[in-house]
Amino acid sequence: MPRSALSVNLLPRLDLALDFVNTLAYRGSTQSESLNSFFDLLGWCATSGALPKESVAELKYWSTRHAENAGALFRDAIELRETLARIFLRFTSDTMPAESDMRALNLALAETPQRTRVAAEGEGYAWRIAIHSISAAAILAAVLWSAADLLVSANRKRIRHCANDQCLWLFVDDSKNGSRRWCSMQACGNRAKASRHYHRTKSA
Ligand SMILES: [Zn+2]
Q1: Ligand 1 centre and the CA of 89: distance in Å?
Q2: Distance between CA atoms of 104 and 81, rounded to whole angstroms?
Q3: Which of 108, 123, 127, 159 is most exposed, with the fewest beta carbons within 10 Å of its own?
């Protein structure tokens, strides 16, 4: 698929990059990996909206004929994810990211396809990008743009990680008073409440 025009529905969600980082869960404990292959990566791109379904289908076909390239691309994608993870985790504690990580992000951004054309798409408009060579940066363009947009936006100050230090799930705190603490009340919030209750009743 060397000169294929992919239409990508962007603007990407501001938190798309955080979703990508969260594909490795329980970063503070026994980590749980949901991306174990190039196919997993494509599956995530399809469900998250990082790539349109037709492009995912084309890339699947491409990978069956270029298994080695697909393997290398997958490793690059995971490396990019971990770069983003380190950058955003620094922001949760008001610390500047490492220069080497910002350099890696900027190198990847420079490799993303150019956004030079918008075209009608469904009821709206979308960026129409052309991928000339398949790389992690090209496939993850929407993720990388979302990461950059998040970093330059005021929401940078609202990047949090889950207060369960075994979980460390990243999110943008969109609560009115900026007080959200948990990835979700169902998962970590309730567990913390139950454990507080347990310790209170035990010490009573
Ligand atoms: Zn959590």
Answers
A1: 14
A2: 11
A3: 123
Q: pLDDT band at residue 3, thresholds of 50, 70 and 90?
A: very low
In the structure encoding, which two tokens stand for residue 133, read together?
């060579």
CA angle 22, 27, 31 (to 5 degrees): 95
Q: How far is CA 180 from CA 77, 116, 122, in A?
A: 30, 38, 35
169-177, long-range: CB < 8 A, 24+ apart: 169/22, 169/25, 170/18, 170/21, 170/22, 170/85, 170/88, 170/89, 170/92, 171/15, 171/18, 172/14, 172/15, 172/18
Mean local confidence (pLDDT), 50-63: 90
- The strand ranges marked E within 9-116 are 24-25, 32-33
Residue type, 127: W
Residues with CB under 5 A from ligand 1 (ion): 162, 164, 167, 169, 183, 188
User: In angstroms, what is the span from residue 26 Cα to ligand 1's centroid?
Assistant: 8
For 4-156, CATH number? 1.10.3300
Q: Map tokens 């979980």 to a residue.
A: 167
0.85 surpassed by pTM: yes
What confidence score (pLDDT) does residue 189 get? 81
Sequence-distant (≥ 6) Cβ neighbours of residue 36 within 8 angstroms? none
Give, for 121, the enclosing helix (H) or strand (E).
Answer: strand 118-121
Residues 165-199 pLDDT 10s: 999 999 999 999 989 999 987 788 887 667 666 66
Q: What is the mean pLDDT of residues 148-172?
A: 94
